[in-house]
Design goal:
about 200 residues, 4 strands, two-stranded antiparallel sheet, mainly alpha, 9 helices
């Protein structure tokens, strides 16, 4: 929040009013409480040669009980290893995930509750990423980490808009992304075509 204020985007009162219950949703998930490996990214799932129906989760370093929808964030918002993600709504992945979740958590069938939980999880994840702003601001123009931060903020906002949740908080997140696009002209790009952006490469 302090970083956003320094960039000229303080959290307005209406956005703050939405932020508190969104974080409460994640901290007290009720029926959405579930055991998670804590890092549900694509690189932590192993598929057997027989096909995608035989999969295994790995990397339980951050395992624990948390809001089930935090595991869905990786479907909508880029994680540390990727610049962009596809649209799970158009591919059908979003419906498949929700249907599978509802088998164990019937409350996932409630549009309002599901949308609010998913939006809160995505926005919460996105707001952790600007903590790296000071580091990214020193990097050379064209650095993919800058692209990734903007893509993350915009993907979280887009998800919340799709589910018609947290409108004021979403507008604030979009404002942050706009400010970063202006600050980093090299990162002011169109992310609609994810094939333009290769997977993030770790530095050696």
């Amino acid at each position: 929040m302090q970083r956003a204020s320094a960039l000229g985007a303080p959290l307005a009162s209406r956005a703050a009013h939405e932020f508190a219950p969104a974080m409460e949703e994640l901290n007290a998930p009720g029926p959405f409480l579930a055991l998670s490996n804590g890092d549900a990214e694509v690189n932590n799932i192993l598929l057997h040669a027989s096909g995608p129906t035989d999969a295994r989760l790995i990397d339980f370093e951050f395992a624990g009980y948390t809001h089930a929808l935090t595991d869905a964030v990786c479907l909508y918002v880029p994680g540390p290893a990727w610049l962009t993600v596809g649209d799970p709504t158009t591919t059908g992945l979003a419906d498949q995930y929700r249907h599978a979740l509802a088998r164990g958590i019937p409350e996932a069938n409630d549009d309002r509750r599901y949308g609010n939980g998913l939006a809160a999880a995505c926005v919460s994840w996105a707001l952790v990423r600007p903590q790296r702003f000071a580091l990214l601001d020193t990097r050379s123009p064209g650095d993919h980490s800058r692209l990734q931060l903007i893509a993350t903020l915009e993907a979280a906002a887009r998800t919340a808009e799709t589910y018609q949740a947290l409108p004021h908080l979403t507008a604030w997140v979009r404002r942050l992304a706009i400010i970063l696009r202006r600050r980093w002209p090299d990162a002011d790009q169109d992310f609609a075509d994810s094939t333009r952006f290769p997977p993030y490469q770790a530095r050696h």
